[in-house]
Amino acid sequence: MTTKKIMDSPRRFVADAARAAAARAADLRWVPNPGFFVRHTPIPHGQVVLISGGGSGHEPLHAGFVGEGMLAGACPGLIFTSPNALQIRAATAAVNAGGGVLHIVKNYTGDVVNFSIAADFAADDGIDVETVIVADDVATESDDGPGRRGTAATIAVEKVCGAAAARGDTLAEVARWGRTVAENSRSMAAAFRACTVPGADGPSFELGDDEVEIGVGIHGERGTGRVSTPSASELAATLIDPVMDSLGVADGAEVIVIVNGLGATHPLELDVLFGDAADYLQSKGIRVRRALVGTFVTAYDMAGASITVVVCTEEMLELWDAPTAAPGWPNSPAGDFAGMPDAAEDVAALDYSDDTPPEAHVTAWASAFTGRVLDRIDELTELDRRAGDGDFGANMRAALDAVAISDTDSPSAVFRRIADGFLGSAGGTSGALFGVWFHQFDVALSTAGVTTDALADAARDGMRAIVDLGGAAPGDKTMIDAIEPAARALDSARGRSPAEALRLAADAAREGAESTADLVGRRGRASYIGDAARGVTDPGALVVAWLFEDGASCFEQ
After folding, report:
1. For 184-202, what is each residue's pLDDT tens digit?
2. Residue closest to 352 by CA, chosen among 408, 397, 431, 434
3. 421-449 per-position pLDDT tens digit
4. Catalytic annotation, pick one of 219, 266, 361, 439
5. Is 439 annotated in the active site?
6. What's the sign of the alpha-carbon dihedral 201, 204, 208, 210?
7. Which residues of 93-121 are buried (b: 16+ CB within 10 A; e: fewer)?
8. What pTM value is reported for the model?
9. Cα(451)–Cα(440) distance, integer angstroms
């Protein structure tokens, strides 16, 4: 399979595309720093506005749904990587018209964490924010881990909420509509061919000529099962049955059906799949009231499709039918689906200033750590490709390429630069979590200087912040498996020198990181692939071990 893509540079790929997309659109503006789309047309004062966002590679989601009657802004991350909190904060402030802002968030850990941080920032800015989490993918439905991923139901939430906002509903009312749609939506997807993202040397997983992957994710994740190539009617039943089971839909229910192409599926195939899906639902006594068929939420160039079912009411249908100028929404007349005929009939960058005298140990530590990570990006990418979706190395590069450490920086400023590199330049879960982790080192060292007590407090407070945001615990195959033993080691070393304390923390973190190879992920993206990640060291935990090892080495010199 070819890996050739139309691009000038993998690093500039998303920014180049965003700049061009805005240039050709009548009501779309691209703000390159920190990176978000907004409408050209001013929003009426007092109106509720909607923002969404997520990794690029899902187009036309989300920028294609920026327009009158839908989104006021959208924040793109790198390919399959969430936008960072600073992007979202800036976009929220840019679109706010005084009526409050609704964040529509797909249930991927990075998206949830970064939108959560941005919502807190927006509150500090005096902006009212409500958040709707979309969690519709029944392939990851379980009581453990992050639960259902957010996929194609996102556009249903954006459409209904956008119409409610346009007619003048309050922020609480718009958010209530969003949660209603989200709670009554479920999806399932299948792939005939995996995606190959820009810069990758092959597809995200391999499929035989007569194999179809069932339960794939929109980040290119492998599915929950594999079958011989089914007919369209068989595929429709395979995707719909778990959706209906999850919804608990009974005979007589009325629904909206969305058949969505994943990036490389022809419209003829999507129509065939919709026709069989409509027939199958009708055979179960389910009435299809509206249909949406096309390519809306992609997994880059994956060949495949998803089916989304939304249980609807008459008022929801009124909002669904309301006009929108969003270019990604089909310009098709509203009206009841009549059924299938008989087949026989045919932000600105942060400004740093710090006059504190240099601290050679901390500067050397930060330089050694950032250099080590950047030198081993390929290793981190390969680990994450085997245990997740392969974006970890790119996130580390994006964060640390942006860090410029000066000999005049105080210890706290050194960690502040690293924290802001992750929060402002990286994306996904890793960008947010490493950002808040290093932020705690900035806070602790700015107050107490470079002491063992300050390092122990920073590690402990950083761990609490990560747990609060991501919900991980030791044994979940995440960075916490290295942080928790390192924090315990630093606590036990209070009263000893920083060099001794960091060496104990380094040894504990290394042991914790190596232990992740034997674990099955229960949080983060490794949780989506289960046993397939066994035997692979968690890359986030490994980076934490490197941090303490480099610290120990620099303080021992």
Report:
1. 999 999 999 999 988 888 8
2. 408
3. 999 988 778 889 999 999 999 998 888 78
4. 219
5. no
6. negative
7. bbbbbebbbbbbbbbbbbbbbbbbbbbeb
8. 0.81
9. 14
